[in-house]
Design brief:
The chain has five helices and no strands. It is elongated. The N and C termini lie far apart (95 Å). About 4% of the residues have low confidence.
Length: 138
């Protein structure tokens, strides 16, 4: 098999994963896109290892060894990443990256000026009611 076939397939997989990382908002889909990019790199490592082993007399299979190492690191990364995403989802109620970034910066939707203006009359009424009761009993 010619080297161009796995290289083109790997490039397509990597571009698909890169699009997924840049365009998706869900953290789990971003992690899946990163895995797709790592699999494209693994395909390249194995393809070039096979191609180089045909030209060299020594066959160390270093590309395949690096692929196994990458698979092990990717498995650990996805386990830790999913644990973090689940913990954030339990605490914040969403896995949307944009909403998480906005709430971390203090730009939460509930802190807008419209909701503050609506909440202020209710707070003022509650305060005046409390002070009015306190003055009436005194």
């Amino acid at each position: 098999m010619h080297l161009a076939y796995p290289a083109v397939l790997s490039a397509l997989l990597f571009c698909t994963g890169l699009y997924g990382v840049l365009a998706r908002r869900n953290a789990i889909l971003v992690l899946m896109s990163v895995e797709l990019m790592l699999n494209a790199v693994n395909l390249n490592l194995v393809a070039f290892d096979v191609w180089l082993s045909k030209t060299a007399e020594e066959t160390l299979h270093s590309g395949q060894a690096l692929t196994l190492f990458t698979i092990a690191i990717a498995a650990a990364e996805i386990g830790i990443g999913l644990a973090i995403v689940l913990a954030v989802h339990r605490n914040r109620g969403t896995a949307d990256i944009d909403k998480l970034r906005d709430s971390a910066e203090g730009h939460d939707d509930s802190d807008s000026d419209d909701s503050d203006s609506e909440a202020r009359p209710a707070e003022q009424a509650a305060r005046s009611g409390r002070t009015g009761k306190a003055e009436a009993t005194a």
